[in-house]
Amino acid sequence: MMNREEEIQRIRELILRAIYSGLTEEEREELERWRGQAPRNEEVYRKLLEQRFTSGEYERYEQARSGDDWEQLRAKWRASRRRRYLSWQWMARYAAVIVLGVVLAYWFRQPEKPQRPMVVRAVQDVQPGTMKAVLELEDGVQVALGTPEVERDERLVSRGITGQDSLVRYAGKDTRPVEHHVLRVPRGGEYVLALADGTKVWLNAETELHYPSRFEGAERRVRVVGEAYFQVTKNDSCPFIVEAGEVAVRVTGTEFNVMAYAGHDRVETTLVRGGVDVMAGNAGQRLTPGMQTVYFKEAGRLESREVDTWLYTSWKEGIFEFRDFSLGEIAEQLERWYDVDIVFPNTEVSEIRFTGAVKRVKPLSFILDIIKDTRSISYRIEGKTVIIDKK
Q: 20 to 30 A Cα–Cα from 6, which one of 66, 122, 216, 342?
Protein backbone atom coordinates (compact mmCIF):
# COMPACT_ATOMS: atom_id res chain seq x y z
CA MET A 1 0.00 0.00 0.00
CA MET A 2 1.56 3.30 -1.10
CA ASN A 3 1.60 6.25 1.27
CA ARG A 4 0.60 9.72 0.11
CA GLU A 5 4.09 10.77 -1.03
CA GLU A 6 4.60 7.53 -2.94
CA GLU A 7 1.22 7.95 -4.64
CA ILE A 8 2.07 11.50 -5.70
CA GLN A 9 5.41 10.37 -7.09
CA ARG A 10 3.85 7.46 -8.98
CA ILE A 11 1.03 9.50 -10.51
CA ARG A 12 3.42 12.30 -11.42
CA GLU A 13 5.59 9.77 -13.25
CA LEU A 14 2.61 8.31 -15.13
CA ILE A 15 1.25 11.70 -16.18
CA LEU A 16 4.61 12.95 -17.40
CA ARG A 17 5.22 9.75 -19.33
CA ALA A 18 1.71 9.93 -20.81
CA ILE A 19 2.50 13.44 -22.07
CA TYR A 20 6.05 12.95 -23.27
CA SER A 21 6.83 9.30 -24.01
CA GLY A 22 3.74 7.10 -23.83
CA LEU A 23 2.50 4.37 -21.50
CA THR A 24 2.22 0.61 -21.57
CA GLU A 25 -1.30 -0.84 -21.53
CA GLU A 26 -0.98 -1.67 -17.80
CA GLU A 27 0.25 1.84 -16.98
CA ARG A 28 -2.52 3.41 -19.03
CA GLU A 29 -5.12 1.38 -17.11
CA GLU A 30 -3.51 2.37 -13.79
CA LEU A 31 -3.66 6.06 -14.71
CA GLU A 32 -7.26 5.80 -15.92
CA ARG A 33 -8.28 4.10 -12.63
CA TRP A 34 -6.69 6.94 -10.68
CA ARG A 35 -8.41 9.56 -12.83
CA GLY A 36 -11.77 7.94 -12.14
CA GLN A 37 -11.33 7.74 -8.35
CA ALA A 38 -12.19 11.39 -7.68
CA PRO A 39 -13.13 14.54 -9.61
CA ARG A 40 -10.04 16.22 -8.13
CA ASN A 41 -7.80 13.67 -9.84
CA GLU A 42 -9.31 14.33 -13.25
CA GLU A 43 -9.00 18.09 -12.64
CA VAL A 44 -5.28 17.74 -11.91
CA TYR A 45 -4.78 15.57 -14.99
CA ARG A 46 -6.58 18.03 -17.27
CA LYS A 47 -4.73 21.02 -15.87
CA LEU A 48 -1.41 19.40 -16.61
CA LEU A 49 -2.42 18.50 -20.13
CA GLU A 50 -3.84 21.89 -20.97
CA GLN A 51 -1.44 24.11 -18.96
CA ARG A 52 -4.28 26.44 -17.96
CA PHE A 53 -2.56 28.08 -15.01
CA THR A 54 -4.48 30.38 -12.66
CA SER A 55 -2.70 33.48 -11.37
CA GLY A 56 -1.59 31.81 -8.12
CA GLU A 57 -0.41 28.67 -9.89
CA TYR A 58 1.50 30.76 -12.42
CA GLU A 59 3.36 32.44 -9.56
CA ARG A 60 4.33 29.00 -8.31
CA TYR A 61 5.56 28.17 -11.79
CA GLU A 62 7.71 31.31 -11.83
CA GLN A 63 9.18 30.38 -8.43
CA ALA A 64 10.12 26.97 -9.81
CA ARG A 65 12.20 28.62 -12.49
CA SER A 66 14.56 30.07 -9.90
CA GLY A 67 14.79 26.91 -7.78
CA ASP A 68 17.47 24.24 -7.65
CA ASP A 69 15.95 22.18 -10.45
CA TRP A 70 16.02 25.14 -12.79
CA GLU A 71 19.63 25.88 -11.89
CA GLN A 72 20.51 22.29 -12.77
CA LEU A 73 18.79 22.76 -16.12
CA ARG A 74 20.71 25.97 -16.79
CA ALA A 75 23.97 24.20 -15.91
CA LYS A 76 23.14 21.46 -18.40
CA TRP A 77 22.40 24.14 -20.99
CA ARG A 78 25.77 25.81 -20.46
CA ALA A 79 27.56 22.47 -20.67
CA SER A 80 25.68 21.53 -23.82
CA ARG A 81 26.74 24.73 -25.60
CA ARG A 82 30.19 23.21 -25.98
CA ARG A 83 28.71 20.52 -28.20
CA ARG A 84 28.32 20.95 -31.92
CA TYR A 85 24.59 20.27 -31.73
CA LEU A 86 22.05 21.10 -29.03
CA SER A 87 18.63 19.49 -29.21
CA TRP A 88 15.94 22.09 -28.63
CA GLN A 89 13.53 19.20 -28.26
CA TRP A 90 15.51 17.81 -25.31
CA MET A 91 15.59 21.23 -23.64
CA ALA A 92 11.87 21.75 -24.04
CA ARG A 93 11.01 18.36 -22.58
CA TYR A 94 13.47 18.63 -19.71
CA ALA A 95 12.16 22.05 -18.73
CA ALA A 96 8.55 20.92 -19.01
CA VAL A 97 9.18 17.87 -16.82
CA ILE A 98 10.65 20.08 -14.09
CA VAL A 99 7.84 22.61 -14.20
CA LEU A 100 5.03 20.05 -14.48
CA GLY A 101 6.53 18.05 -11.64
CA VAL A 102 6.56 21.09 -9.36
CA VAL A 103 3.05 22.12 -10.37
CA LEU A 104 1.68 18.60 -9.89
CA ALA A 105 3.10 18.34 -6.37
CA TYR A 106 1.69 21.80 -5.63
CA TRP A 107 -1.83 20.97 -6.86
CA PHE A 108 -1.93 17.75 -4.88
CA ARG A 109 -1.40 19.68 -1.67
CA GLN A 110 -3.91 22.48 -2.28
CA PRO A 111 -7.43 22.45 -0.82
CA GLU A 112 -10.38 22.70 -3.15
CA LYS A 113 -11.08 26.36 -3.96
CA PRO A 114 -12.66 28.45 -6.70
CA GLN A 115 -10.25 29.19 -9.52
CA ARG A 116 -9.68 32.70 -10.90
CA PRO A 117 -8.44 32.93 -14.47
CA MET A 118 -5.02 34.40 -15.02
CA VAL A 119 -5.00 37.86 -16.56
CA VAL A 120 -3.04 37.81 -19.82
CA ARG A 121 -2.12 40.41 -22.39
CA ALA A 122 -4.67 40.57 -25.19
CA VAL A 123 -3.05 39.92 -28.55
CA GLN A 124 -4.32 38.64 -31.87
CA ASP A 125 -3.80 34.90 -31.77
CA VAL A 126 -5.38 31.58 -32.67
CA GLN A 127 -6.27 29.15 -29.93
CA PRO A 128 -5.66 25.39 -30.29
CA GLY A 129 -8.24 22.83 -31.25
CA THR A 130 -10.61 21.15 -28.80
CA MET A 131 -12.42 17.86 -28.30
CA LYS A 132 -15.29 18.06 -30.76
CA ALA A 133 -16.91 15.94 -33.42
CA VAL A 134 -20.22 15.25 -35.17
CA LEU A 135 -21.80 11.80 -35.12
CA GLU A 136 -24.02 11.03 -38.10
CA LEU A 137 -26.53 8.26 -37.41
CA GLU A 138 -28.14 5.79 -39.83
CA ASP A 139 -31.16 8.04 -40.44
CA GLY A 140 -28.99 11.06 -41.25
CA VAL A 141 -29.49 12.74 -37.87
CA GLN A 142 -26.33 14.54 -36.72
CA VAL A 143 -25.33 14.82 -33.06
CA ALA A 144 -22.71 17.36 -31.97
CA LEU A 145 -20.23 15.82 -29.53
CA GLY A 146 -17.76 17.44 -27.15
CA THR A 147 -20.17 19.05 -24.67
CA PRO A 148 -21.50 17.87 -21.27
CA GLU A 149 -25.06 17.89 -22.66
CA VAL A 150 -24.29 14.95 -24.93
CA GLU A 151 -24.45 12.57 -21.94
CA ARG A 152 -28.21 13.11 -21.78
CA ASP A 153 -28.91 13.09 -25.51
CA GLU A 154 -31.80 10.68 -25.99
CA ARG A 155 -30.77 9.99 -29.60
CA LEU A 156 -27.60 8.34 -28.23
CA VAL A 157 -29.04 6.86 -25.05
CA SER A 158 -31.78 5.05 -27.01
CA ARG A 159 -29.06 3.37 -29.10
CA GLY A 160 -26.92 2.30 -26.15
CA ILE A 161 -24.29 4.94 -26.90
CA THR A 162 -22.60 6.82 -24.07
CA GLY A 163 -21.42 10.31 -24.97
CA GLN A 164 -18.84 12.28 -22.97
CA ASP A 165 -16.85 15.47 -23.45
CA SER A 166 -13.99 13.71 -25.21
CA LEU A 167 -15.23 10.16 -25.95
CA VAL A 168 -18.23 8.34 -27.36
CA ARG A 169 -18.64 4.67 -26.38
CA TYR A 170 -20.80 1.90 -27.86
CA ALA A 171 -22.33 -0.82 -25.70
CA GLY A 172 -20.49 -4.13 -25.94
CA LYS A 173 -23.57 -6.30 -25.74
CA ASP A 174 -26.46 -4.98 -27.77
CA THR A 175 -29.35 -6.63 -29.61
CA ARG A 176 -30.51 -3.54 -31.51
CA PRO A 177 -30.36 -3.66 -35.33
CA VAL A 178 -26.94 -2.80 -36.74
CA GLU A 179 -26.66 0.76 -38.05
CA HIS A 180 -24.03 2.47 -40.16
CA HIS A 181 -22.53 5.50 -38.39
CA VAL A 182 -20.01 8.16 -39.38
CA LEU A 183 -17.92 10.11 -36.88
CA ARG A 184 -16.57 13.35 -38.35
CA VAL A 185 -13.91 15.47 -36.66
CA PRO A 186 -13.60 18.94 -38.21
CA ARG A 187 -10.57 21.18 -38.49
CA GLY A 188 -9.61 22.38 -35.04
CA GLY A 189 -10.85 19.21 -33.35
CA GLU A 190 -10.00 15.70 -32.20
CA TYR A 191 -12.04 12.94 -30.57
CA VAL A 192 -11.93 9.40 -29.19
CA LEU A 193 -14.27 6.56 -30.12
CA ALA A 194 -14.75 3.24 -28.29
CA LEU A 195 -16.33 0.71 -30.65
CA ALA A 196 -18.67 -2.08 -29.60
CA ASP A 197 -15.85 -4.67 -29.52
CA GLY A 198 -13.76 -2.50 -27.14
CA THR A 199 -11.44 -1.15 -29.85
CA LYS A 200 -10.48 2.49 -29.24
CA VAL A 201 -9.85 4.96 -32.04
CA TRP A 202 -8.27 8.40 -31.66
CA LEU A 203 -9.30 10.68 -34.53
CA ASN A 204 -7.12 13.62 -35.51
CA ALA A 205 -8.41 16.90 -36.97
CA GLU A 206 -10.21 16.79 -40.34
CA THR A 207 -10.90 13.05 -40.12
CA GLU A 208 -13.93 10.84 -40.56
CA LEU A 209 -14.50 7.21 -39.63
CA HIS A 210 -17.24 4.99 -41.13
CA TYR A 211 -18.20 1.99 -38.98
CA PRO A 212 -21.12 -0.21 -37.83
CA SER A 213 -22.78 0.29 -34.45
CA ARG A 214 -21.68 -3.27 -33.69
CA PHE A 215 -19.79 -5.95 -35.58
CA GLU A 216 -21.42 -9.04 -37.07
CA GLY A 217 -19.99 -11.83 -39.19
CA ALA A 218 -16.42 -13.03 -39.70
CA GLU A 219 -14.67 -9.63 -39.75
CA ARG A 220 -14.68 -6.16 -38.24
CA ARG A 221 -14.41 -3.57 -41.02
CA VAL A 222 -14.19 0.24 -40.82
CA ARG A 223 -13.14 3.00 -43.24
CA VAL A 224 -11.07 6.09 -42.44
CA VAL A 225 -10.35 9.32 -44.30
CA GLY A 226 -7.81 11.50 -42.51
CA GLU A 227 -5.68 10.29 -39.61
CA ALA A 228 -6.52 7.90 -36.79
CA TYR A 229 -4.73 5.83 -34.17
CA PHE A 230 -6.22 2.36 -33.57
CA GLN A 231 -5.94 0.28 -30.40
CA VAL A 232 -7.62 -2.90 -31.59
CA THR A 233 -9.13 -5.44 -29.22
CA LYS A 234 -7.62 -8.84 -29.95
CA ASN A 235 -9.85 -11.43 -31.63
CA ASP A 236 -8.02 -14.07 -33.66
CA SER A 237 -11.22 -15.45 -35.18
CA CYS A 238 -12.53 -12.05 -36.32
CA PRO A 239 -9.88 -9.83 -37.96
CA PHE A 240 -10.14 -6.05 -37.85
CA ILE A 241 -9.80 -4.37 -41.24
CA VAL A 242 -9.20 -0.66 -41.82
CA GLU A 243 -9.88 0.66 -45.31
CA ALA A 244 -7.97 3.82 -46.26
CA GLY A 245 -8.53 4.56 -49.91
CA GLU A 246 -6.72 1.89 -51.94
CA VAL A 247 -5.07 0.52 -48.81
CA ALA A 248 -6.44 -2.12 -46.45
CA VAL A 249 -4.85 -2.84 -43.06
CA ARG A 250 -5.68 -6.25 -41.58
CA VAL A 251 -5.07 -7.07 -37.90
CA THR A 252 -6.39 -9.23 -35.09
CA GLY A 253 -5.22 -7.11 -32.17
CA THR A 254 -2.61 -4.35 -32.20
CA GLU A 255 -1.86 -0.60 -32.10
CA PHE A 256 -1.11 1.42 -35.22
CA ASN A 257 -1.58 4.80 -36.88
CA VAL A 258 -3.08 5.42 -40.31
CA MET A 259 -2.61 8.73 -42.13
CA ALA A 260 -4.80 8.90 -45.24
CA TYR A 261 -5.86 12.47 -45.93
CA ALA A 262 -7.73 12.93 -49.18
CA GLY A 263 -5.40 15.62 -50.52
CA HIS A 264 -2.19 13.73 -49.78
CA ASP A 265 -0.17 11.78 -52.33
CA ARG A 266 0.35 8.87 -49.95
CA VAL A 267 -1.15 6.65 -47.25
CA GLU A 268 1.06 5.89 -44.24
CA THR A 269 0.55 2.99 -41.83
CA THR A 270 2.79 3.03 -38.75
CA LEU A 271 2.88 0.04 -36.42
CA VAL A 272 3.47 0.58 -32.70
CA ARG A 273 2.61 -2.85 -31.24
CA GLY A 274 1.61 -6.27 -32.56
CA GLY A 275 1.57 -7.05 -36.27
CA VAL A 276 -0.41 -5.93 -39.31
CA ASP A 277 -0.76 -6.87 -42.97
CA VAL A 278 -0.98 -3.89 -45.31
CA MET A 279 -2.41 -4.53 -48.76
CA ALA A 280 -2.78 -2.30 -51.81
CA GLY A 281 -3.83 -3.86 -55.11
CA ASN A 282 -1.70 -6.95 -55.67
CA ALA A 283 1.04 -5.76 -53.28
CA GLY A 284 1.26 -6.57 -49.59
CA GLN A 285 3.59 -5.96 -46.66
CA ARG A 286 3.79 -7.58 -43.23
CA LEU A 287 4.79 -5.06 -40.57
CA THR A 288 6.52 -5.58 -37.24
CA PRO A 289 6.67 -2.93 -34.47
CA GLY A 290 8.68 0.13 -35.44
CA MET A 291 7.92 -0.21 -39.16
CA GLN A 292 5.86 1.88 -41.54
CA THR A 293 4.43 1.26 -44.99
CA VAL A 294 3.92 4.11 -47.44
CA TYR A 295 1.55 3.71 -50.37
CA PHE A 296 2.26 6.23 -53.14
CA LYS A 297 -1.08 6.84 -54.81
CA GLU A 298 0.06 8.07 -58.21
CA ALA A 299 2.70 5.37 -58.71
CA GLY A 300 0.61 2.64 -57.07
CA ARG A 301 3.73 1.60 -55.16
CA LEU A 302 3.94 0.20 -51.62
CA GLU A 303 7.17 0.61 -49.64
CA SER A 304 8.14 -0.22 -46.06
CA ARG A 305 10.79 1.23 -43.76
CA GLU A 306 11.84 1.43 -40.11
CA VAL A 307 10.81 4.65 -38.34
CA ASP A 308 10.63 6.29 -34.93
CA THR A 309 6.93 5.69 -34.31
CA TRP A 310 6.72 8.61 -31.87
CA LEU A 311 7.09 11.03 -34.80
CA TYR A 312 3.87 9.69 -36.31
CA THR A 313 1.83 9.13 -33.14
CA SER A 314 2.80 12.02 -30.83
CA TRP A 315 -0.32 13.94 -31.92
CA LYS A 316 -2.40 11.41 -29.98
CA GLU A 317 -0.49 12.35 -26.80
CA GLY A 318 -1.01 16.07 -27.37
CA ILE A 319 2.44 16.80 -28.83
CA PHE A 320 3.65 18.27 -32.11
CA GLU A 321 6.96 16.55 -32.85
CA PHE A 322 8.92 17.89 -35.81
CA ARG A 323 12.24 16.36 -36.80
CA ASP A 324 13.87 18.08 -39.77
CA PHE A 325 10.44 18.95 -41.18
CA SER A 326 10.02 21.65 -43.79
CA LEU A 327 7.85 24.61 -42.80
CA GLY A 328 5.48 23.51 -45.56
CA GLU A 329 5.03 20.13 -43.89
CA ILE A 330 4.60 21.76 -40.49
CA ALA A 331 2.04 24.18 -41.93
CA GLU A 332 -0.19 21.29 -43.03
CA GLN A 333 -0.45 20.05 -39.44
CA LEU A 334 -0.95 23.53 -37.99
CA GLU A 335 -3.68 24.35 -40.51
CA ARG A 336 -5.73 21.33 -39.50
CA TRP A 337 -5.31 21.76 -35.74
CA TYR A 338 -5.74 25.54 -35.53
CA ASP A 339 -8.26 25.77 -38.39
CA VAL A 340 -6.26 28.39 -40.29
CA ASP A 341 -4.80 28.88 -43.76
CA ILE A 342 -1.03 29.39 -43.86
CA VAL A 343 0.42 31.33 -46.80
CA PHE A 344 4.05 31.52 -47.94
CA PRO A 345 4.51 34.56 -50.24
CA ASN A 346 8.06 33.32 -50.82
CA THR A 347 8.03 29.59 -51.65
CA GLU A 348 11.65 29.25 -50.50
CA VAL A 349 10.50 29.89 -46.93
CA SER A 350 8.25 26.81 -47.05
CA GLU A 351 11.39 24.67 -47.62
CA ILE A 352 13.18 25.86 -44.44
CA ARG A 353 13.77 22.90 -42.11
CA PHE A 354 12.91 22.85 -38.40
CA THR A 355 13.28 20.43 -35.48
CA GLY A 356 11.35 20.81 -32.24
CA ALA A 357 8.57 19.55 -29.97
CA VAL A 358 5.63 21.65 -28.78
CA LYS A 359 2.45 20.82 -26.85
CA ARG A 360 -0.69 21.09 -28.98
CA VAL A 361 -2.56 23.00 -26.25
CA LYS A 362 -0.40 26.08 -26.88
CA PRO A 363 -1.73 29.03 -28.92
CA LEU A 364 -0.52 29.21 -32.48
CA SER A 365 1.76 32.18 -31.78
CA PHE A 366 3.69 30.13 -29.22
CA ILE A 367 4.79 27.66 -31.89
CA LEU A 368 5.42 30.31 -34.53
CA ASP A 369 7.52 32.36 -32.10
CA ILE A 370 9.78 29.37 -31.46
CA ILE A 371 10.29 28.87 -35.19
CA LYS A 372 10.83 32.60 -35.69
CA ASP A 373 13.45 32.72 -32.91
CA THR A 374 15.46 29.89 -34.45
CA ARG A 375 14.95 30.56 -38.16
CA SER A 376 15.10 33.72 -40.27
CA ILE A 377 11.36 34.17 -40.72
CA SER A 378 8.60 36.55 -39.73
CA TYR A 379 4.88 35.99 -39.48
CA ARG A 380 1.62 37.82 -38.96
CA ILE A 381 -1.87 36.60 -38.11
CA GLU A 382 -4.82 38.16 -39.90
CA GLY A 383 -7.95 36.47 -38.61
CA LYS A 384 -7.81 32.89 -39.87
CA THR A 385 -4.94 33.55 -42.28
CA VAL A 386 -1.28 33.28 -41.28
CA ILE A 387 1.41 34.80 -43.51
CA ILE A 388 4.94 33.42 -43.05
CA ASP A 389 7.73 35.19 -44.90
CA LYS A 390 11.42 36.06 -44.73
CA LYS A 391 12.54 38.14 -41.79
A: 66
